[in-house]
Amino acid sequence: MHTSALLNETIKYLNPESGDKFIDATFGFGGHSSELLKHIEPDGKILAFEWDPVLFKAMKEELSMKKTTKKIVLKNKNFKHIKKISIDEGFTNVKGVMFDLGVSTWHYKNSGRGFGFGKDEPLDMRINPDDIKMTAFEVVNYFSEKELTEVFRTYGEERQSSQIAQEIVKRRKIKKIETSEDLSEIIVSSKRTRGRSRKNPATKIFMALRTFINGELENLQQGLKDSYNLIQPGGRIVILSFQGLEDVIIKKVFKELKKSGANVLTKNVVRPVFSEMKANPSSRSAKLRALMKPLNE
Question: Rounded distance, CA 191 to CA 297, Å?
Fold first, then answer.
């Protein structure tokens, strides 16, 4: 069962009222949208985006069973297309847009696409295999040592990027690196670790590959800027991030929007309280930021 992080805080900053229209840019298992719907019924509507085709199909069926397809309009698209699709669907001048970034626990445990380290799964890492052609297998086995180093450093902030890339190139000459388990073993064996860490040594490399392949940072910048143009005066954007590079982009875009008049509602980033982190360990790294379009715009 997927548990949405910072659910109460998200609803608080979105400030929903009966009849409002919202956009959920990252539907997932629908936790945030389901809670939001309770506050905007009976006439409120949500336009939702779910990029993963497997999750999209499953959630489409669930919405149909619950008879909420007219209240939640679900699209199998990435939020980089948020502007065009929202206009097409009549979701302009909305009360708010919410983002819950990254991939879910389901992707790591059940997708079978090699998101999780140490699992005997093909090196894929594409959130939407229909849209994205390049796989993690191709990057790991065919990028040059220099290119691998750049990907690991830019998208994973891995300090030992160079030596890991060097070891990957050395190993793939002997045998192609085919599974997430193979890659994880190579990373762990090539890293110099100091003391104990809660994080798996392969964490940053896997994050770098996933982020790079799916264009996550580029899509975020585009989607976030376009979202601001879709909200009404007094409307909100609430965004949850789980890694530092996402937060860098969010702060940069928020800073630009603040210069054009937006009000940043979260002077300090909002984090889960201890009880939530204990009940939902995957929420530990969650950060919430929110802003509001001025009423006179």
Answer: 52
